[in-house]
Write a structure and sequence with these properties.
The protein is α+β, with helices and mostly antiparallel strands and 110 residues long. The chain has two helices and five strands, in the order ααβββββ. The chain has a five-stranded mixed beta barrel with strand order 1-2-3-5-4.
């Protein structure tokens, strides 16, 4: 059985352009992914759907963006399933973060 060259090329093209292929890897194009971490809250900013939290851990300061979460300065939080973005501009906050970690969950440690 002979398969035409054109049929092979067309099949590859359809596979690459298939939206399900892109959906299978939602982090494609993300700067970096990480498993999670923790820190002490230094500052918070609220925006629709998100709480932006500045944390400190082992002398290092960094920002995370979590789904809206009730937290306060001084709390210790743990976060999971993160995606790091560099030079992220929040139009809602009118602020550019040099580096921010988007997380699926931030939990206050008791």
């Amino acid at each position: 059985m002979r398969i035409s060259y054109l049929a092979v090329i067309a099949s590859i093209g359809f596979a690459l352009m298939n939206p399900l292929t892109a959906a299978a890897n939602p982090l494609a194009g993300a700067a970096k992914t990480a498993a999670g971490g923790e820190g002490k809250i230094l500052a918070t900013l609220d925006a629709p759907g998100y709480t932006y939290i500045e944390l400190e851990n082992n002398g290092k300061r960094f920002w995370i963006a979590a789904p809206t979460t009730r937290v306060k300065v001084g709390d210790r939080v743990q976060f999971v399933q993160s995606m790091v973005m560099n030079n992220f501009n929040s139009k809602t906050l009118n602020k550019t973060f040099d580096r921010i970690i988007f997380v699926t969950e931030a939990t206050v440690q008791k």
